[in-house]
UniProtKB/TrEMBL annotation:
This is Uncharacterized protein. Keywords: Membrane, Transmembrane, Transmembrane helix. The chain crosses the membrane at residues 311-339, 401-419. It comes from Adineta steineri. The lineage of its organism: Eukaryota, Metazoa, Spiralia, Gnathifera, Rotifera. It comes from the Eukaryota.
Amino acid sequence: TKISIPYGDFVKIIPLFHQVCSSDFISQQWINFIFQANPTFIWPIDVRTSLSAMWQLIRTFCQSSINMTTDALNQFNNSPLINTMLLTEELLEAKVQAALYLLRQTASATLIQPMTIVHKVTQANQLVTGLLTNYVAVTKSFGLAQRFIPYHDIGYMNISLYTGTFGNKYISKNSSLVCSCQNNGSCPLPGNLYLYKIFETFGMYDLNRIKANETLSGIIIDCLPSQMTLSSSLECFYNQSCLNILLLSYNDSLNISILNQSLSSRFISTTKIQLLINELFLEEIFNQTNYTKYYSQCLPNVCQYIYIHRFYWINVLTIFIGLLGGITTVLHIITPYIIRLILCIKKRCVSKKYEQVREKTPFRPKELFLKVKGKIITFNLYSKYSRDPIRVYHGVLATRLYIILLLISICIIILFSYSSNQVFNEIIINPSEQEYGKLEEKYSLTLTCPCTQISIPYEDLITIEVKYHQICTSDFIQPWWYQSFLPYNTSDNNKIDFLSFAPSYFQTLETFCDIAKIIINNEINRFLTTTFVHAQILTNDLFYSQINSSINTFIQ
């Protein structure tokens, strides 16, 4: 009676978030404590430089995840479940789970995509972080010439340097490869502590020469604080010894509890924070679907069903009476002959004692025909042995009438049986697709095939391929291309031409291509992981119609 029912009328949902979102580590007290480190006197590769920014971002992501989840669940509670028929409890649960999963995927993409775009735009436009973790600004105060000079000695390496902005360069331990924040975009390093007086490196950090005092497990340093946040895990903050090492590196002291390792969680301590963000920091969504409330809202006013009942007492009684009448009639006909047969057999047995020989009478067809004709004419079921000729005559007429009516009744029954439609319920176990196609052609109006799996991900049904503009696969957006441009002296105002921003230009093209791919891939993954819910198998035309409708909605 009600085909549109809000999910909130029969579903109760309680989200449970990761413990970090309610821990002391996202408190303002903790953020202020780790912010006290002066970045002027520590290197960008020191974990303390970006640690405060990292925890500010974690707090922001926690708050955003909680808000988005709350909004998504409110939207879910207000969204209607539309169906013209009463759903089974299993099918209702499947539809609820599918709707919740879709909202969860949408909320996750809404949180992740802006963050990814900020990363790409920051790198493409070569924006300098306030913590100088990606670029170093070299000015005249360093006493350098404004024009390009071949080399500059920084104590352990000669580098080309002049006044301008340069991407920080990092060399990992046991490696000679130089990673540049300007060209590579990301240069992950272990989260080290350097507890001694620093010296000027002009943005070149070789970990083969710069020795760390301590390494904090799970923390990864990178060009941007946001990259550091995504690449790191909370492993150190589950370990009291690791946390104590970090706390001792600050001048002040703070009493703070580690994360509870024994608390039940679907995430392990080494899980990347990026995965936590992708999952909206959700440990679990408790879903309580009340089928009774759903039924009271749907409230069907009529139910229709088909059943097969082999033994119905009225039918049994009718058949019994019919058989009884038939048996009576048959016995009425054959009883005299049976008696004659018995008497004949008895007579033969007696005659054998006297060995009498009878002459054989020759077979005469005409006499046989006349004899049969006479039997038919005088056939009497009612007064055969009566001596009253009138009564015998009436019996013959009654017998003829009985036979005529019996033949008419048989004809009527045959015609009725031939013209009436009989319902047969045939069950085919595990039909193939070809068998279903043949059955659908013959019995399209009455064929029903319940699905063994009522909830099927779209990725099992659809393959989506995307073709991008050729610029997104060309060499012009490859790192080796824009890294081939020599550094340009930004203080030389006489040579402002394309070469001065060529690397940034091609990085921007790469960024737009990457953003387009990320957005489209996220939407494709979200679409393919949603489920196609249906209790009955659909016909080929109806299936493609619904799939095409879903694809058109996805494209729009």
